[in-house]
Design a protein that fits this description.
The structure is a homotrimer. Chain A is an alpha/beta fold. Chain A contains four helices and 40 strands. In chain A, 12% of the residues lie in helices and 27% in strands. At the A-C interface, strand 4, helix 2, strand 40, helix 3 and helix 4 of A face strand 22, strand 23, strand 38, strand 39 and helix 3 of C.
């Protein structure tokens, strides 16, 4: 499904310098190992340079200073950031399929919804009263777009996305299947005997160029809005609680949970399966390692981590058992340092190493 | 979309005492910072009392003994539990939109299903043979309700919920989009060469006043039923394995996983992203901190936690490396206490601090 | 909905020896505690042998050498692996409901799709151009099957599964509701100011006899394919990143996240909520405990774990606080062993036990 583009033309688009035959036609992309005739590859990490020798790609993107082995028969595209250039080349070679604008006869669109004539509404989609769907928008099969929802130009909803009433989605976003935007936040008051509901009267407001992964959920605000700023990228199966604010160009990997009312600054990078508690402030530019539990605000950008290192089960069991006594261990060590010795800490019962964790 | 209610009428509903103009009309809710004319706010935590001075809300719910700054121009609603009163006021001001009862012409409803004439079945919904849908039930767009399913009065399924055959859902529940009720539990037997399926012949039985969040999944039982008791509140992206039993009014925050056959008592509070192993018993009233891994039964109510504290990456790396040697460290400390010294523990190889974690 | 089968016939299918009345008809399965007349149960773990005395099942599967109390009035089915035999008996007694082959009139099937005449396409399902659906396949209500997708014989998609364009699903698979196969991987390049998309030009290729749980997501490959080999069993809410390869008969429990480009060998068992980083190699036959974070490759099969043991909150807080100082603690201990004492490590500031974690 790729377009064919002469290497010279591609180079112009990428601000790259061709070393080799700029007339060769490129019609696809591939890894250094798998790319064949007509395909473009890239070398971003110099560590993989030796793979060039056996590489059969028609052309390879690489840095201006990368030494290229003589065995490599293809063209070299010299460029400052080969990975970024590859991303761009790949988009040129694999453009999104054109929209077939119009409303599928099986879609149920409320008469008061305003659907741009250049938008596409897929089979079995449902669009509620007063929704506004911009030009170039694609509403995939089986999507449900609630009343009063606004979706900006060029945004694509893959099949079976749900957007609850009143939410706002900007332009040029991509929402993958199963995403749920604007369900009620987990707002409850305890009576002493049971939980009572608190209506969630805020919205979800999503900026431009935002990606939302498959089965990711973003709750509507309780009173104010939940806000996802321009350029935010969310992977699959992320949960974002009510009233969260995510700053511009923050990227969040899969399976992350962000509890309610937490504000995350711009340009953060949050690793997969991280868990972020509610009502925190995370400084812009922070990096959080995968699996890390963030339980307090982060005032200063930096790299943070909290994962227990994995080890063979028997070793883990012995070490983890000691964790229950780490505070005791610390006190006992201090007592020794102060010359008190074991006799002085008789109230401390050291654990048996065999204790189960 | 809010109703307007005179403050005096609201006060009667809330068992509150008005200090100020009880004729003012309230038509919305807001935070102390954002609420404006005609809006109601609340002060639950005395820490935020100073915000009252600049608050422009028409009225604020507060405790009888809360000192209110003279600068606050609005009315005061004195009430024992301002947060709970706020929840109730908000429900009065934001009632659920009325149901448009009837079956949408695009819905596919089996001839043998019994749909109460006061129920609503939305566009593109599917209802299977022998299903029984009570009065005031809303089946949202694109929902699939299996054969023999029973749904009690007043329960609302948001768009695209799936309920598998034979499951039972009580009255006045709310199920959010993407929830899947009654998929097969993960029941497998190993032949020595491959996995074989075990039919999951139980159901999911959900009580009354239960909430199920977006993309939450509850598996049907293997032989017995999976049971969610009255008043349980489940947030988004929770996974509940086959044969689990959750007791009355237990609340579970987002991203929690509960493995099969675990029984959780009533009135527990389980923090986000907690992981609970299978075949456990958790005492009623237990509180489990977010991100905690529960690997053994809990016999006594209490607050439990297990999260590794987060820290800057370099610090984490040094400390985590030592975790592999914690048991050794404990033995060496004991040897010192007993006057043996390092010579006596020569078999122990202390780790290098620079070791990667 | 169960079939009735005489015990003798069942025994033949299971390679079991009947002790008792082989003419009794079995029409269901149950636990030792709950099974009644006409029902079959099993005793796999000898620990539960005492439950036999009160068991009212018509027959119980047990090992040849299990002593059966005289109080048990039912028949005994002697078999080498009672649990596996139970799985098979249960499948015989609870066969899948027969397919009603044909395309529901409300389904939208592209004219170029090839649907076997023994396949079933449910209400409101959508099948794209050039898709090939094999015999005995069931496409549940509201599923969306993209263009060019191929689905092998006997595979069942429960309601509301999405399969993106070009993906391949083998024979005799089961995909549960809400599963999303082939959404874009999280492929981004940073420009220095914002993220740019990298088209995901690979597919998802799923083998035969694979199960995919409810709301599980499997991303398509970036350049190569994401591959799920024959016999893999995936529970609910699992996320599998682009370019992952899962080997034959590997089983993954719920809520696991596997980041991109990780290769997991055959016959692994991965516990619930485990998190596996990207670009790793996990040796075949590895077992990973629930909740474990795998951050490095595993070269050798074994059992691995990493969970912080849970404890009462106050105890956790004290111990967790010390974790920030574990490396210091280790250095101080070594200093003591070397006879230096506290004076020699004056640069180390021991933490206060009361420090918050």
């Amino acid at each position: 499904m790729a377009t064919a583009i002469p290497l010279g033309v591609l180079a112009t688009h990428l601000d790259a310098v061709v070393e080799g035959d700029s007339a060769v036609c490129i019609d696809g992309v591939g890894t250094l190992e798998a790319a064949g005739a007509g395909q473009l590859s890239f070398l971003a990490n110099p560590r993989y340079r030796r793979q060039l020798a056996a590489c059969r790609a028609a052309a390879v993107l690489m840095r201006p200073d990368t030494e290229c082995p003589a065995d490599f028969a293809g063209a070299r595209l010299r460029v400052a950031d080969p990975y970024l250039a590859f991303a761009r080349a790949s988009r040129l070679l694999h453009p999104l399929p054109p929209l077939e604008s119009g409303i599928h006869p099986s879609a149920i669109v409320d008469a008061s919804a305003i659907i741009d004539r250049l938008a596409q509404v897929g089979p079995h989609a449902v669009v509620g009263a007063g929704a506004r769907i911009g030009p170039g928008v694609a509403i995939g099969a089986g999507c449900v777009v609630g009343g009063g929802v606004s979706i900006g130009a060029g945004t694509r909803l893959h099949p079976r996305v749900v957007v609850y009433d009143g939410c706002v989605i900007g332009a040029h976003c991509i929402l993958h299947s199963g995403a749920v935007i604007g369900a009620d936040g987990f707002g409850l008051a305890w009576t002493g005997e049971r939980w009572e509901h608190i209506p969630q009267t805020g919205r979800v407001v999503i900026g431009d160029h935002v990606d939302v992964g498959a089965n990711t959920t973003i709750d509507r605000g309780a009173l104010e809005d939940t806000v996802i700023a321009d350029g935010v990228k969310l992977d699959n199966q992320i949960q974002i609680g009510h009233n969260c604010v995510l700053g511009e160009h923050t990227a969040v990997a899969g399976c992350v949970g962000i509890a309610g009312s937490t504000r995350i600054g711009p340009r953060c990078r949050i690793g997969g399966a991280a868990m972020i508690s509610g009502h925190l402030e995370i400084a812009g530019g922070s990096e959080i390692a995968g699996g890390t539990a963030i339980t307090r605000s982060i005032g200063e950008a930096g790299v943070y981590a909290s994962v227990f290192p994995f080890m063979p089960f028997a070793q883990w069991r012995r070490n983890a058992a000691q964790l229950r006594h780490l505070d005791d261990l610390s006190r006992r060590l201090r007592a020794l340092e102060q010359g008190v010795g074991a006799a002085g800490v008789a109230d401390v019962s050291p654990s048996e190493p065999s204790e189960s964790a």
